[in-house]
Amino acid sequence: MFWAKKIMEAFVLPPGIMVVALAGLAFYLRKKARTGAVVCLALAALVWVGTSKVFSDAIMAPLENAYPTPSKPKGDVIVLLCGGFRGGGNLYSASERLAPATLERAAAAYKLYQDTKLPILVSGGAPFSAEPEAEAAAAWLRELGVPQDKLLAEKSSRDTFENAEYTVKLCRERGFRRIILLTSAYHIPRAVMLFRKEGGVEITPFPVARRSGGPRFISDWLPGRDLDARLAINEYFGIVYYRLYYLFL
Do residue 81 and residue 109 come from a single domain? Predict the structure, then answer.
């Protein structure tokens, strides 16, 4: 009963309903327009495969496995890269203003702070929000007990490129030469590349919140089970884009 319901949900809710609609259109066109029917079937397969967890894991894993998470990282400062802002009013905790990726990273940064007692430099501006992401993340870290004198915020950056540019500049001004760079595992290859391009500081990658891997279930093969493929494709695009940028700079 449980799995029957889950399978039905997968094909009733978006994007699974698109698979059903395209397959139905292909069936309707099979005699009238064979080419159109083939195109519809191909699109249905693309939607199905592209939104399954099996596919997203396959393209996410190379990004997430690029760097291990060090057990005893050494550095002068923890650099926390934000990953989105949720906003809202009448909130109980500052954590409610953080998008899931920022919340995952900030939670890991707090644990790392507890282990190392290093200052945390939070990086993230307000490209799509009224409040800088770094300000919201720092507020939640203060709620958890991180002293104000252990928190710094870089509030101007709008993307990873500017994260690297503005954060490295701030680190130089503060005398931080060894950075523990903390962000989501899928994001770490691009972040490390851009921070190292800035030069002048030593980078220790600290990937967190891995999404790929784990045991397999029937639902992992169904459409709509996982939309992380978009995140992975965005990272691959960013890596290629900035490699070309530095090549022709």
Answer: yes
Question: How many helices (H) and strands (E) would you count in the chain?
Answer: 9, 5
Residue 175 belongs to what domain range?
69-210
Question: DSSP character for 106?
Answer: H
pLDDT-derived band at 182 (thresholds 50, 70, 90) equals very high
| pLDDT single digits (tens) 77-102 | 999 999 998 877 778 998 999 999 99
Task: Report which residue type is found at 172.
Answer: R
Do both 171 and 234 map to the same domain? no
pLDDT tens digits for range 2-54: 777 788 888 888 898 999 999 999 999 998 899 999 999 999 999 999 999 99
Residues 152 and 170: beta-carbon distance below 8 Å: yes
Distance CA 48, CA 59 (A): 15
